[in-house]
Amino acid sequence: MSVTDAETTTRRSAVPAGAPAIITDLYDAFAQRNMSLVQVTWEQQRLHESRRWSVVDMLSAVDLDALTPTDRNLVWNAGRAELTTKPGADRLERQSRNEVDRWRDKNPVVANIMEACGTWSRYWNEEEAHHETVFLRLAEVTGMETVADETFIDFRQVFPDDDMLRTLVLLAFSEITAAVNYGACQHVIQDPGLRRIFKQVAADEIQHRNYFVAFAKALVDSGEYHAKDAFAVGHLFLREDGELGGSAREKVEERGTHVNWWDHLETGEGDFRPEALEKKEQLICGALKKITGIEVNSREEVEDTWMDLVGS
């Protein structure tokens, strides 16, 4: 064997052989396994790169002349909905920074969790930019009603800050709603290129849900945040006429400070409207179990558990 051959066989790689994945036990990763922020954010980068896709390539595969009225309505609503996600990512980065400062001296592990969350928000922001751009571009080139500049700016209003655990749980549930909606849309879309876009966006939203669940679980695992706040958000979504009903509710709140995309879906009589409320409810219950370790299987159990936790 030559010297060159020996060097080739012993050459080390900076990239591990295993597939990238979300660190689902983030509190233990910092507190027990002594992972550093450099190591955790490296895993975030690996996963992000493995999932990157091109808006240009996706759009080039869509047959614009083959889109049905249903396709066009779904694209138009999706583009407007995705306009509201950048403010959420911007808020997450800012709020995470505030939490880092709050916990840095009192509980460095929680500070690390929040720094990992704020750092990951850059990837969330980028992926949501893909979603927004792909749908808005499709709407524009197919002659749909243009999003006015005033509407664009209104939809960019930043959400008000809240308790960090409640914020993460709300984001997880919002991603569940989006993922189920996009998944349902796939079944009525005829064009393969457009169907692929909705499938990709749904997969992205599920990944975002998994990240929010992991960050929320880490906060509960730390003992500094309480499960009752996660269940409070669950009740907010699942109660009668709750957030899960979106624009179909009898009364939609006047937010004033920001725009929630689920309040603004517009469909005419006979238009396809993704619902799947039972599936969303079960996914929300599953997320609550992952975050808190408490098993619930219905909206009634979510409410009962929330009331028990409030009274304890």
Automatic annotation (TrEMBL):
<dbReference type="GO" id="GO:0046872">
    <property type="term" value="F:metal ion binding"/>
</dbReference>
<keyword id="KW-0444">Lipid biosynthesis</keyword>
<keyword id="KW-0275">Fatty acid biosynthesis</keyword>
<keyword id="KW-0560">Oxidoreductase</keyword>
<dbReference type="GO" id="GO:0006633">
    <property type="term" value="P:fatty acid biosynthetic process"/>
</dbReference>
<dbReference type="InterPro" id="IPR009078">
    <property type="entry name" value="Ferritin-like_SF"/>
</dbReference>
<dbReference type="GO" id="GO:0045300">
    <property type="term" value="F:stearoyl-[ACP] desaturase activity"/>
</dbReference>
<keyword id="KW-0408">Iron</keyword>
<dbReference type="InterPro" id="IPR005067">
    <property type="entry name" value="Fatty_acid_desaturase-2"/>
</dbReference>
<keyword id="KW-0479">Metal-binding</keyword>
<keyword id="KW-0276">Fatty acid metabolism</keyword>
<protein>
    <recommendedName>
        <fullName>Ferritin-like domain-containing protein</fullName>
    </recommendedName>
</protein>
<comment type="similarity">
    <text>Belongs to the fatty acid desaturase type 2 family.</text>
</comment>
<keyword id="KW-0443">Lipid metabolism</keyword>
<dbReference type="Pfam" id="PF03405">
    <property type="entry name" value="FA_desaturase_2"/>
</dbReference>
<dbReference type="InterPro" id="IPR012348">
    <property type="entry name" value="RNR-like"/>
</dbReference>
